């Protein structure tokens, strides 16, 4: 535990930080570089068109080290970001909370000291950096700037003065809420002691002055109450010990003097030392404090008492200095190691005031001299000015002190006490479950009404190893009587690595009385998806604010001034404008453009509302009108000022309606313009960004982050669901989410950005990004491409953490499968799954769509016959008939559809449907057509087909239009099927035969028999994915989830099974397998030839890398291949690769597969025989011609061209040799 202290950092630590800054003062030569990964070298040429289907909103190929599939954080933590060459965002260093501001610290000589980063974090890049740090873009090193405690909201780097102006809600040096970092000197107090309220924005005006905007009413610092030393420190809960205590019964217990203020001496009320022996009295606390006054009651028991003593503070082990009133002279006196106590019985107690206010968590009083036969005490009390209320009620003011409205707290729920570790005090921790709703109510002892800054303190999560379970808390408070609702409500993130505090309220608080008590309530926020969520509660502090007055939310500072005179406020245009804003006003944003500074915030006067412009010597409303709600953020892009906040329209100046929290102001034309129809919630930050949108040329787009979940509909653009992030494209006057085309996709939050002097940019926020924005399906060649169809994104409610989406067939969403169909001049792409797409006629298409490339990419569906809650899981084509299977239901021409749909692609209409499948939970998982037949094999979860009992696998004969059961003894669920030959079908799933369970079965279509696959007992769970490893499928791969929950991946080589081992992490869900050819060989292995690689798709956890949606396996190692993202931030996956042509295999040695070799050999043999026969015939004809043979005459009645010859003449020459044959010929 560390004591509470506002002391500045040690000189040694500060000098080391300045030394690091000096090292970093080099010319900016090169931005962060990224290492490309080796190309996978896939050879897709034999497959024709290739597509990837899945549940994603964006997809990237893995091309650079550092790319990942991590979603954006929603627990409040953010990172410094930059961009990969392929457009994806890279996280450079992470903070444990939000980053609010950045600026490049360029010195007078042009060298870049680094980028100053400010926010609400306690660590950056793993280094303790409360509120502010320096980042070196050359080395990615983080240099803490120690000395602040609190949060930084605004930064301004001024090259002319080598100064960084810092504003926020913090304490540092001798200032509050405003401070300066000067060159390589370090923290420097400004000529004023900061402000009495938080600073939200800092800008440099055209006259070179620095303008501060925020919520303050004057310069100044926190102050103590008008009556100091009123808060009593609770000693009764401390661990009290003593040395050299008397052995007399009733006088040896050191706790006798705690909570004893009567001054009575006697057994049980007095603590005595042994006769004529020095000793000590010591108290160890579970919390830190900063005492301002010590009150001691000397004992007079039997003429004894303490005469001289000293006070040692711990853990610093320092002897404290005191001031006190000398009872003999009535004058102030001081003491340290030998402080006196009077033996006068008329002196009830004596007060000693600490000269230095020092943080401590224990102290010891050593009695070195005594009156009479020994020392002792009758009572002790400690006081402080700090007003704290602790969650652990034992740390609050003692009830024995007789205080009418003593500070206290109450807790409800499963709270437990957690040790203080490195924090200032012990604290409470609660595990939040669905059945619990813990809360803590803090009731402070406020004895003086006035303006206060209220801070809530949160212990760091590293010390108790709770970072993975921390989330958000909602803090509400009532600060004055007459209020029936909460006086304030705010949300605080508790994911900080180190101790921090957040300002939760600034304003008036009414003093407590018997009829009213100010209160603060802490409780978990709702809607958090954090596994094993935990919340902590430590303390709430209240600081009385005083100031010089004369200001209101704006202050203009001249850096050339060394002394601030409040009388000069009236000479400042900014200060005067602030005083005209009215009470309870605030400034949130300042932007300077030329000679004009735009001011946005929360204010309303008869002249302007929420936004104004200050130019030259006057403050004026914008000619285009004011805004009807609070402005929270502004950003200038050339001559356009983008504004975000809580407003809905512009008022006056012609006004513009339907702005809805975002707007653009033309600073040249002085007009407002709407951005679409706006968004449905507040906007908190605006950050410009460069993107390739319409052509391969970067253009500036504007990003908006806030508490909204929808882009409102306008014109022909429907409403679009989002997760608090939107991108406006000025050149298209539309949101990026409404534009069709091949563009990257970004989701998450951006809060700040800076352009680096050597080129490139840094960003602050938490993002997920992908090279290609495509919902559910993408084309794959050497690059990624989008199919010409608009599938709507599936946006779930934003949650507190990213989670991998469940990708089993029962909950599958997005595009699950696809086919390419080419026949009769038709070129159609078919996509199936669970989604909503937009047809060419503007209508919604559910779950099954057709993109007709031979008809201008017309997009159509199957119509309303299929239920919209269906999910297509499998597709197959037999001639012109599409069979679509899955969890689907509907009605076609009065016929029930359940599990399987038949659709005629030539006529674009449903066929007469096969009798519906039956069972408790019908799903078709796989469909395959038997080679060279019209038999369609359907596998899945069902028990019957029409009236035929036919579980797991059933055959639909297209020629007879009826179902047939293959074999008679199969049961269970079939997940995947592939043909090894025209009569041998391999089926994977959770199957059974004759009471025996098996994950893999083989069906002989000729004998109609099922057999368990060789070695199937070694497969640890149901098979969900399968791929042939050679042309005749005598070798194949299988994958699934074992009964213990882990994933498995195995290969059958025709004789035995080989497993790749436990190489994929927990949570892996393999959906698809495909063996692909390579253009560049790798080292051969027993599992794969040098010219092959296994593509594994699904939701994959790759140890040492993280999540991936597709990986390549070369027989020994896995390499990420494709990474996906989702707008819902709930995880994403790739289901399958589908191609236009069937895969063609080569052997391990690089030659043709065995089946092809046999066929080629047979063809060569037949060709040779044919050539020999032809050669023989030709030779015989030549011989006969040479020997003068002529054709024999034929009778007119011989219709066959041959006279009837007696058998003895025809066959009589057999065995006679050549001469016999010639003789016979002569006879003929």
Automatic annotation (TrEMBL):
<keyword id="KW-1133">Transmembrane helix</keyword>
<feature type="transmembrane region" description="Helical">
    <location>
        <begin position="1156"/>
        <end position="1179"/>
    </location>
</feature>
<feature type="domain" description="Rax2-like C-terminal">
    <location>
        <begin position="900"/>
        <end position="1147"/>
    </location>
</feature>
<keyword id="KW-0472">Membrane</keyword>
<keyword id="KW-0732">Signal</keyword>
<dbReference type="InterPro" id="IPR011043">
    <property type="entry name" value="Gal_Oxase/kelch_b-propeller"/>
</dbReference>
<dbReference type="Pfam" id="PF12768">
    <property type="entry name" value="Rax2"/>
</dbReference>
<dbReference type="InterPro" id="IPR048266">
    <property type="entry name" value="Rax2-like_second"/>
</dbReference>
<feature type="domain" description="Rax2-like second">
    <location>
        <begin position="228"/>
        <end position="377"/>
    </location>
</feature>
<keyword id="KW-0812">Transmembrane</keyword>
<feature type="signal peptide">
    <location>
        <begin position="1"/>
        <end position="31"/>
    </location>
</feature>
<dbReference type="Pfam" id="PF20843">
    <property type="entry name" value="Rax2_3"/>
</dbReference>
<dbReference type="InterPro" id="IPR048265">
    <property type="entry name" value="Rax2-like_third"/>
</dbReference>
<feature type="domain" description="Rax2-like third">
    <location>
        <begin position="388"/>
        <end position="545"/>
    </location>
</feature>
<dbReference type="InterPro" id="IPR024982">
    <property type="entry name" value="Rax2-like_C"/>
</dbReference>
<dbReference type="Pfam" id="PF20842">
    <property type="entry name" value="Rax2_2"/>
</dbReference>
<protein>
    <recommendedName>
        <fullName>Cellular morphogenesis protein</fullName>
    </recommendedName>
</protein>
<dbReference type="GO" id="GO:1902929">
    <property type="term" value="C:plasma membrane of growing cell tip"/>
</dbReference>
């Amino acid at each position: 535990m560390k004591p509470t202290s506002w002391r500045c950092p040690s000189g040694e630590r500060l000098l080391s930080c300045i030394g690091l800054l000096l090292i970093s003062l080099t010319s900016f030569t090169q931005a962060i570089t990224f290492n490309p990964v080796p190309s996978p070298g896939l050879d897709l040429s034999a497959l024709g068109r290739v597509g990837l289907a899945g549940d994603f909103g964006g997809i990237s190929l893995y091309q650079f080290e550092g790319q990942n599939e991590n979603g954006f954080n929603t627990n409040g933590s953010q990172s410094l970001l930059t961009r990969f060459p392929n457009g994806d965002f890279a996280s450079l260093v992470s903070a444990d909370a939000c980053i609010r501001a950045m600026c490049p610290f360029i010195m007078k000589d042009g060298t870049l000291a680094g980028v100053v980063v400010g926010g609400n974090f306690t660590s950056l890049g793993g280094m303790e950096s409360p509120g502010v740090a320096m980042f070196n873009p050359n080395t990615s090193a983080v240099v803490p700037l120690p000395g602040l405690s609190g949060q930084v909201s605004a930064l301004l780097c001024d090259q002319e003065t080598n100064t960084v102006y810092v504003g926020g809600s913090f304490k540092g040096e001798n200032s509050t809420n405003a401070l300066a970092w000067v060159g390589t000197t370090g923290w420097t107090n400004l000529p004023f002691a900061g402000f009495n309220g938080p600073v939200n924005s800092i800008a440099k005006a055209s006259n070179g002055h620095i303008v501060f905007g925020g919520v303050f009413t004057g310069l100044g610092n926190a102050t103590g109450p008008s009556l100091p030393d009123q808060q009593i420190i609770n000693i009764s809960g401390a661990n009290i010990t003593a040395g050299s205590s008397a052995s007399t019964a009733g006088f040896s217990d050191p706790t006798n003097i705690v909570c004893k203020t009567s001054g009575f001496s006697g057994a049980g009320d007095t603590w005595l030392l042994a006769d004529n022996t020095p000793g000590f009295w010591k108290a160890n606390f579970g919390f830190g404090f900063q005492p301002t006054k010590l009150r001691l009651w000397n004992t007079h028991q039997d003429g004894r008492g303490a005469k001289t003593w000293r006070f040692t503070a711990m853990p610093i082990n320092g002897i404290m200095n005191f001031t006190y009133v000398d009872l003999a002279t009535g004058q102030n006196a001081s003491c340290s190691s030998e402080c006196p106590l009077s033996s006068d019985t008329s002196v009830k107690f004596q007060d000693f005031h600490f000269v230095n206010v020092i943080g401590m968590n224990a102290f010891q009083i050593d009695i070195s001299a005594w009156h009479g036969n020994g020392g002792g005490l009758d009572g002790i009390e400690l006081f402080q000015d700090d007003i704290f209320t602790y969650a652990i009620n034992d740390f609050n003011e003692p009830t024995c002190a007789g205080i009418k409205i003593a500070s206290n707290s109450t807790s409800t729920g499963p709270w437990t006490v957690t040790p203080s570790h490195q924090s200032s005090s012990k604290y409470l921790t609660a595990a939040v479950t669905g059945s619990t709703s813990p809360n803590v109510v803090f009731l402070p002892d406020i004895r003086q009404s006035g303006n206060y800054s209220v801070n809530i303190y949160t212990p760091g999560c590293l010390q108790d190893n709770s970072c993975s379970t921390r989330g958000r808390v909602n803090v509400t408070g009532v600060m004055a009587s007459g209020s029936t609702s909460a006086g304030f409500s705010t949300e605080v993130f508790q994911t900080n690595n180190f101790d921090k505090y957040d300002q939760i309220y600034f304003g008036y608080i009414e003093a407590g009385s018997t009829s009213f008590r100010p209160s603060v309530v802490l409780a978990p926020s709702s809607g958090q998806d954090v596994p094993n969520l935990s919340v902590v509660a430590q303390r709430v502090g209240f600081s009385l604010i005083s100031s010089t007055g004369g200001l209101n939310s704006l202050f203009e500072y001249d850096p050339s001034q060394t002394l601030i005179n409040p009388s000069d406020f009236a000479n400042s245009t900014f200060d005067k404008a602030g005083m005209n804003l009215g009470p309870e006003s605030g400034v949130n944003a300042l932007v300077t453009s030329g000679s004009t500074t735009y001011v946005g915030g929360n204010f309303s006067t008869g002249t302007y509302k929420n936004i104004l412009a200050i130019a030259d010597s006057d403050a004026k409303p914008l000619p285009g009108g004011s805004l009807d709600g609070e402005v929270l953020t502004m950003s200038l892009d050339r001559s356009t000022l983008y504004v975000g906040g809580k407003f809905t329209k512009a008022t006056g100046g012609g006004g513009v309606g339907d702005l809805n929290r975002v707007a653009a102001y033309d600073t040249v034309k002085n007009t407002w313009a709407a951005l679409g129809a706006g968004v449905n919630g507040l906007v908190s930050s605006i950050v410009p960004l460069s993107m390739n949108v319409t052509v391969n040329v970067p253009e500036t787009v504007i990003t908006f982050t806030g508490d909204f979940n929808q882009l409102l509909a306008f014109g022909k653009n429907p409403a679009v669901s989002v997760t608090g992030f939107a991108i406006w494209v000025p050149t298209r006057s539309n949101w990026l989410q409404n534009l069709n085309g091949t563009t990257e996709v970004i989701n998450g939050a951006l809060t700040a950005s800076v352009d680096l002097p050597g080129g490139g940019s840094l960003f602050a926020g938490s993002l997920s990004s992908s090279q290609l924005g495509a919902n559910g399906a993408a084309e794959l060649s050497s690059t990624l491409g989008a199919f010409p169809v608009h599938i709507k994104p599936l946006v779930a409610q934003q949650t507190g953490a990213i989670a991998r989406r469940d990708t089993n067939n029962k909950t599958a969403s997005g595009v699950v499968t696809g086919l390419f169909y080419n026949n009769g001049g038709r070129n159609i792409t078919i996509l199936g799954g669970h989604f909503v797409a937009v047809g060419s006629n503007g209508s919604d298409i559910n779950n099954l769509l057709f993109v007709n490339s031979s008809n201008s990419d017309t997009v159509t569906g199957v119509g309303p016959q299929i239920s919209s809650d269906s999910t297509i899981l499998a597709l197959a084509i037999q001639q012109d008939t599409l069979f679509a299977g899955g969890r689907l239901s509907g009605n076609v021409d009065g016929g029930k559809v359940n599990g399987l749909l038949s659709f005629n692609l030539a006529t674009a209409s449903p066929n007469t449907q096969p009798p519906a499948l039956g069972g408790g939970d019908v799903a078709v998982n796989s469909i395959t057509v038997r080679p060279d037949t019209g038999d369609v094999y359907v596998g899945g979860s069902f028990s019957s087909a029409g009236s035929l009992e036919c579980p797991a696998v059933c055959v639909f004969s297209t020629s007879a239009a009826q179902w047939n059961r293959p074999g008679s003894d199969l049961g269970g669920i079939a997940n995947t099927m592939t043909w090894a030959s025209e009569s041998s079908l391999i089926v994977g799933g959770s199957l059974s035969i004759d009471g025996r369970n098996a994950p893999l079965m083989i069906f002989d279509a000729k004998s109609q028999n099922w057999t368990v696959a060789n070695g199937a007992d070694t497969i640890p769970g149901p098979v969900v994915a399968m791929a042939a490893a050679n042309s005749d499928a005598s070798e194949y791969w299988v994958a699934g989830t074992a009964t213990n929950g882990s994933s498995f991946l195995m290969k059958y080589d025709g004789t035995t099974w080989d497993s790749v081992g436990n190489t994929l992490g927990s949570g892996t869900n393999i959906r698809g397998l495909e063996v692909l050819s390579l253009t560049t060989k790798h080292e051969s292995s027993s599992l794969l030839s040098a010219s092959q690689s296994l593509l594994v798709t699904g939701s994959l956890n790759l140890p040492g890398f993280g999540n991936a949606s597709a990986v390549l396996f070369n027989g020994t190692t896995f390499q990420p291949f494709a990474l996906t993202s989702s707008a819902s931030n709930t995880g994403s996956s790739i289901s399958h690769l589908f191609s236009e042509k069937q895969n063609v295999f080569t052997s391990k040695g690089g030659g043709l597969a065995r089946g092809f070799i046999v066929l080629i050999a047979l063809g060569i043999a037949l060709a040779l025989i044919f050539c020999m026969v032809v050669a023989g015939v030709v030779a015989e004809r030549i011989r006969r011609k040479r020997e003068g043979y002529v054709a024999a005459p034929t009778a007119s009645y011989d219709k066959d061209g041959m006279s009837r010859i007696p058998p003895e003449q025809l066959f009589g020459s057999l065995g006679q040799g050549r001469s016999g044959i010639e003789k016979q010929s002569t006879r003929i």
